[in-house]
Amino acid sequence: MRVRPASAEDRRWVTEVLVSRWGSPDVVSRGRVHDAASLPAYVAELDGRPVGLVTYAPSGDELEVVTLDALVGSVGVGTALLETLLEQAEAHGCRRVWLITGNDNLGALGFYQRRGFRMVAVHSGAIDRARWFKPGIPGLGAGGIGIHDEVELAYVLPRGHDDPEKVALEPVREEEKSVLANLLQLYRHDFSLIRAFELTEHGTFVYRYLDTLFLESSRQAWLIRHRGHLAGFAMVRALPEGRSELSEFFVVRGHRRRGVGRRAAALVFSARPGDWELAYDLANEEAAGFWPLAVAAVSGHAEHLVVGPPERPTEQMVLRFSVPGAADR
Q1: So what's the pLDDT on residue 162?
Q2: What's the half-sphere exposure (Cβ side, CA atoms, 13 Å) at 183?
Q3: Which helix (H) or strand (E) holds 186?
Q4: Residue 147 sits in the same domain as residue 7
Q5: How many domains does the chain have?
Q6: Are 202 and 313 in a shared domain?
Q7: Would you call 227 helix, strand, or coil by DSSP?
Q8: Rounded to the nearest 10 degrees, what angle do helices 285-296 and 260-271 cross at?
Q9: Which of 87, 124, 198, 268 is most buried, by the most CB atoms less than 10 A from its CB?
Q10: 86 and 216, same structural domain?
Q11: How would you list the strands of the sheet with 49-59, edge to edge?
Q12: What is the CATH number of the domain that holds 34?
C-alpha cells in the first residue's frame, strides 16, 4: 500500500468520495464548517488504485483529522492513512492531533482508541446545533442510536524531536558564495527527478540566480545549521506587490524528518513579518506533505491556488499567507 499527498488531479475524486461518504464536502466540527474538498489530504493506493482518503486541517501546533475513509475493508487502509498523518504531524512539531466523531459512531470510537487516541471531551448537543449548518445530518445512527453529541478524541505527540535551539540561520556572506553553490548542486540534483534538469558537460547543474543574490537588495539567503552542522539553505525575494516569496528552500536528506525544516522555515518567516507567498510543484509529494503544516505553524490561514503555465514553469500549488510580527503575537 502506498500513501501519498493528494494532488490537484485528485480533487474531483476527493469530492466524489466526500459526497458519497459525508453527503457533501461540508463537514461540521466544533461549530465550524470545513470545505473538506479544499483541505490538504492524503490518498491511500493499493495496486495503483485509490482506496482511502484522509483530509486534515492544521492550525498552529495542532492538527484536526476532518475526514477519514477507507473504501475497502480489512487491509489496513485507515491505519495506514492515520499513521502517515501522525508521522507528518510529529515531524512538523505538532503538539496534538484531534478529531470529532458522533456519539453513535461506535466503530470510529473503537478504531481511534485502539490506536492511542483518548476521549477528551463530550460536547453535548453539538450535532443538534450543527444541523443548522448542515440539515442533512441524520438523526439516527447504526442500531437506532440518536445522534446528538460530538465526541472529541486526541492523540498527544512526543516533542523530543522538537529542538528549536539547535536550528539556526546564518545570512550568506558573499565570500560564502561557493558554499551556497555547492548546496545548490545537491538541491538541483533532488529536483532533477521532478523537473528533469540535465547536467552540463562539466557534470554540474545550472542555477542562474546565484550572482543575482548578491547584487539585488530584494534578495536574501541564509544557511541552515542543525547542531552546528551545515544542513541546508533558504532564499527569499521581495515581490513587487509587497509580499515576500520563499523562492528556494533545501534541507539535506540526513537532517530531514527531525523538525529541522519546520523550524528553519519558521525562523525565515519570522525574520520578515507580513504577507508571504511560496509555491511547490504538484508533482513534489514531499513538499505537498511538508508545506501546509509548516505554514500552519506560523499563520492561522493560507490561501491555496493552483497555478500553471504560462505564469509558472509547471503546475504548482501557491500558498499565500500572513505572518504576524512580534507585537501581534
Answers
A1: 47
A2: 24
A3: helix 177-195
A4: yes
A5: 2
A6: yes
A7: coil
A8: 50
A9: 268
A10: no
A11: 2-5, 41-46, 49-59, 62-70, 96-102, 150-156, 118-123
A12: 3.40.630.30
